[in-house]
């Protein structure tokens, strides 16, 4: 059995892994784990990964979670072009810096924006107060400013002149609030220009394909009540 | 000017960087940024790191934040022994996996315990509701269980027979609640044994030197706290209610 990737493209980290593998022509079996159907909570999936999260990589007997770890594993095993994770000491440090920062910053705010604006009301039938939504979007705004001012600055890409893992992880995060209908790039010409560059570097067809699911998130079917019950506490823990 | 590390050893991330640099004989200037005095908000420090967080590294003109990035940088630049970040594909991936997971699973909750048990009561004069405390402690217990089952298993250290960056980062974070007199190793002999192994591998002298400030935090006279900072902390308390 070759490389298997357990993914749901609804999830930002899954999109980053998917795009990276496709872009670098890394052969893999796609194992879809439908989060909205609660498939990640099945016993079968718990055998693959006890934490019951996606993405998961399975390479023979070796199983790996955490998208950053998976991206680095693929980078090393498949010897991808240097710009994704440069050999240069300082350039690499910049990528590491972004990949570390984003866990508790951009990731969290993009997730909350999607769930507060769309997924809680539409998918789970749980209304979110306008105040809560406004607070979440305000925090997202602050994080976007940090992304621009500290990480992007006047460079073409986050870690330097070439696209890297940092840009891939960042752009897939930002598509979460975009999928929720937030105008993330409006009034942010610098970020909008960077997005175009990343999309061009990845390839527009691949980029669109990877984002088809999230862009339709607003059309999610309401969750089955049994599924909703199973999902609720995990969702609340995830977005707290 | 050589390598500079901007640190306050109250922070677990700073302790990881400090211990690693010292253990590997990496020469650096210790630039103390006193969190208790709010020096991370000073004009001088904001120029180093506009996000006002610690640790930061400054190597000539190159400035770097995020302890995980700093540790990797030091490993590479100073060619530290390979057991810290093993070159084997699978082993290295396990370290990466832990370093990614720990941000939200270990570091954040362990720090929250310190706030709940010590800092919030000390600064605001109020206790965090017992229900919230219990919730937090339950989360920590779950995550520690996961740490043992997935990362440690029956090995001496996370990657096997030798200490790596993962053990260093894990331990300094698990020490954080000690500042509030909460010992996560109590009644857990497997974890306690691992803790001792890591301490010995690092050197007990260095380990306890790095933890001195944390262990005496309860003695801090917080009456000197800036009123604006105090207000922000009181607002933090509201989040727990």
From TrEMBL, chain A:
Coiled-coil region list: none
Gene3D superfamilies, sorted: 1.20.1050.10, Glutaredoxin
GST N-terminal domain ranges (all copies): 1-82
One GO CC term, this protein: cytoplasm
Principal cellular location given in the protein's record: cytoplasm
Any one GO molecular function term: glutathione transferase activity
Record domain GST C-terminal: where: 88-226
Location within or outside the cell: Cytoplasm
EC category name: transferase
Catalysed reactions, as listed in the record: RX + glutathione = an S-substituted glutathione + a halide anion + H(+)
Stated family: Belongs to the GST superfamily. Theta family.
Name of the protein in question: glutathione transferase
Source organism per UniProt: Vicugna pacos (Alpaca)
UniProtKB/TrEMBL annotation, chain B:
Oligomer status and interactors: Homodimer.
One of the protein's GO biological processes: glutathione metabolic process
Pfam entry (one): GST_N_3
Top-level EC class as recorded in UniProt: transferase
Chain ranges of the GST N-terminal domain: 1-82
GST C-terminal domain residues: 88-218
Domain of life: Eukaryota
Chain's role: Conjugation of reduced glutathione to a wide number of exogenous and endogenous hydrophobic electrophiles.
Record-linked PANTHER family: GLUTATHIONE S-TRANSFERASE THETA-4-RELATED (PTHR43917:SF13), PTHR43917
Protein's name in the database: Glutathione S-transferase theta-4
EC number: 2.5.1.18
PROSITE patterns from the UniProt entry: GST_CTER (PS50405), GST_NTER (PS50404)
The species this protein was found in: Vicugna pacos (Alpaca)
UniProt-listed SUPFAM superfamilies: GST C-terminal domain-like, Thioredoxin-like
UniProt keyword terms in alphabetical order: Cytoplasm, Transferase
Family statement drawn from the similarity comment of this UniProt entry: Belongs to the GST superfamily. Theta family.
Keyword Cytoplasm: yes
GO cellular-component term (any): cytoplasm
Reaction(s) catalysed (UniProt annotation): RX + glutathione = an S-substituted glutathione + a halide anion + H(+)
Compartment annotation: Cytoplasm
Molecular function as annotated in GO: glutathione transferase activity
InterPro entries per record: Glutathione-S-Trfase_C-like, Glutathione-S-Trfase_C_sf, Glutathione_S-Trfase, Glutathione_S-Trfase_N, GST_C, GST_N_Theta, GST_Theta, Thioredoxin-like_sf
């Amino acid at each position: 059995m070759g490389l298997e990737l357990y993914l749901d493209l609804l999830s930002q980290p899954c999109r980053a892994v998917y795009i990276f593998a496709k872009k670098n022509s890394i052969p893999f079996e796609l194992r879809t784990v439908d989060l909205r159907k609660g498939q990640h909570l099945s016993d079968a999936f718990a055998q693959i990964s006890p934490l019951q999260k996606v993405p998961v990589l399975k390479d023979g007997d070796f199983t790996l979670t955490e998208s950053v770890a998976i991206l680095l594993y693929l980078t090393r095993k498949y010897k991808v072009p240097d710009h994704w994770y440069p050999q240069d000491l300082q350039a690499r440090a910049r990528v590491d810096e972004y990949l570390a920062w984003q866990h508790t910053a951009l990731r969290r705010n993009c997730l909350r924006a999607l769930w507060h604006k769309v997924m809680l009301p539409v998918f789970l039938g749980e209304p979110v107060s306008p105040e809560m939504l406004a607070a979440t979007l305000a925090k997202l705004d602050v994080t976007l400013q940090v992304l621009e001012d500290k990480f992007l600055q006047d460079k073409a890409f986050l870690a330097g002149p070439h696209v890297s893992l940092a840009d891939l992880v960042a752009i897939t995060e930002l598509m979460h609030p975009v999928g929720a209908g937030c105008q993330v790039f409006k009034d942010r010409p610098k970020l909008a220009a960077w997005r175009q560059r990343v999309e061009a570097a990845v390839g527009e067809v691949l980029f669109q394909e990877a984002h088809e699911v999230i862009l339709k998130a607003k059309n999610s079917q309401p969750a089955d009540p049994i599924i909703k019950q199973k999902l609720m506490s995990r969702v609340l823990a995830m977005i707290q | 000017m050589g390598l500079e590390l901007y640190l306050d050893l109250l922070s677990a991330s700073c302790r990881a960087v400090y211990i690693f640099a010292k253990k590997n004989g990496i020469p650096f200037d210790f630039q103390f940024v006193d969190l208790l005095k709010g020096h991370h908000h000073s004009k001088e420090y904001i120029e180093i790191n506009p996000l006002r967080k610690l640790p930061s590294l400054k190597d000539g003109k190159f400035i770097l934040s995020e302890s995980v990035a700093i540790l990797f940088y030091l490993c590479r630049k100073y060619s530290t022994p390979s057991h810290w970040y093993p070159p084997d594909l699978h082993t290295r991936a396990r370290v990466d996996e832990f370093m990614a997971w720990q941000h939200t699973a270990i570091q954040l909750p362990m720090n929250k315990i310190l706030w709940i048990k010590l800092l919030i009561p000390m600064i605001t004069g109020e206790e965090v509701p017992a229900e919230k405390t219990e919730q937090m402690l339950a989360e920590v217990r779950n995550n520690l269980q996961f740490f043992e089952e997935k990362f440690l298993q029956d090995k001496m250290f996370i990657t096997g027979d030798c200490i790596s960056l993962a053990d260093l980062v894990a331990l300094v974070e698990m020490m954080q609640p000690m500042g509030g007199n909460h010992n996560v190793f109590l009644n857990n002999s497997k974890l306690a044994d691992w803790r001792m192994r890591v301490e010995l591998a690092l050197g007990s002298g260095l380990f306890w030197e790095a933890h001195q400030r944390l262990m005496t935090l309860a003695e801090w006279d917080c009456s000197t706290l800036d009123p604006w900072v105090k207000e922000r902390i009181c607002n933090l308390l509201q989040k727990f209610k």
